[in-house]
Amino acid sequence: MNEKLLLIRATRIGGHAYRYLTARPRTGRVVSSFSGGINLLFENAEAFVPVQTASVALHPWAIEIEGQPLRFAEGTPVSVQPGQLSVENTQIVLSEARIEDLQLPHSSATDVAIAKGNFLFLKQFVDKARKTPSPDPFQQQIDAILVRWHESGDPRMLFELIGLGAGATPSGDDVLVGIVAGLSLFESADDRVEEAMFQLRSGIQKTAHARTPLPSAQMLHAACDRSCLSQELGPRISR
Looking at the structure, do residues 94 and 156 belong to the same domain, yes or no? Predict the structure, then answer.
């Protein structure tokens, strides 16, 4: 006897996930679960896509759905056809989801001047935070890399952060995503930042997939495309 088909509406979808999943039919499998949903791996580890609830911040490779977190066994097959994603008896409707490119804005020369005026305050904040011991065993290595970057002024020093840490998104990669995102805000208004971003993008594109797990490599590449995590949580009305 056939199981009843369960339809779930996707409310938002990150721009990178949308473009990948709508390019052609895809097949994959469930690789893991987390508190907010499930993680999917497509086409022999070509792409990693979380399917999560609105309680988790959306990122460029994620799909946000209505209701409770999905739960499926690891290895459960997944398929994508135009407008929908299927996992066993569950169909996730993608066609009505809001596409979120999560693009960072460009800053003006005035914005740059304001940011520079706040550097002292930010430095004081960072210095205070560093007085509290970090639970991350890789923090000392990360700090040492950042010091070498500041002393040399060479953005290539930051490539040592790629893959530094444990898990699917190592902490060194998280730091580098933040740096790339921060610099991206100012590259259109500062020639030095523009040159640094050129070097960072080039190095990340050449090395990230070989040096760090796929989920983290995708986030680094998305940051290079000026697309980053959304801090906005909660349900959204679809387009």
Answer: no
**Overall domain count for the chain:** 2
Query: By residue range, what is the domain housing residue 34?
Result: 6-100
Taking alpha carbons only, the member of 102, 166, 106 closest to residue 137 is: 166
Q: Which two tokens stand for residue 25?
A: 């039919």
Q: Render pLDDT for 105-142 as a digit per residue (tens, 0 to 9).
A: 888 888 877 877 777 777 777 677 767 777 889 999 99
Please answer whether residues 173 and 150 qualify as being in contact, where contact means their C-beta atoms are separated by less than 8 angstroms.
Answer: no
- Quote the Cα angle for 230-235-239, to 5°: 85
Three-state secondary-structure class, residue 79: strand
The model's pTM is 0.87
Q: 3-state class of 189 per DSSP?
A: helix
Nearest to 220 by CA among 191, 200, 192: 200
Phi-psi region of 164 (alpha: psi -120 to 50; beta: other; left: phi over 0): beta
Divide the 239 residues of the chain into consecutive groups of 10 and give the mean pLDDT of each group: 83 97 97 97 96 96 97 97 95 96 87 77 72 85 95 96 94 96 89 94 96 97 92 45
81-105 pLDDT per residue, tens: 999 999 999 999 999 999 999 999 8
DSSP per residue, 23-46:
HS-EEEEEEEEETTEEEEEETTTT
Last residue of a domain, one of 82, 100, 118: 100
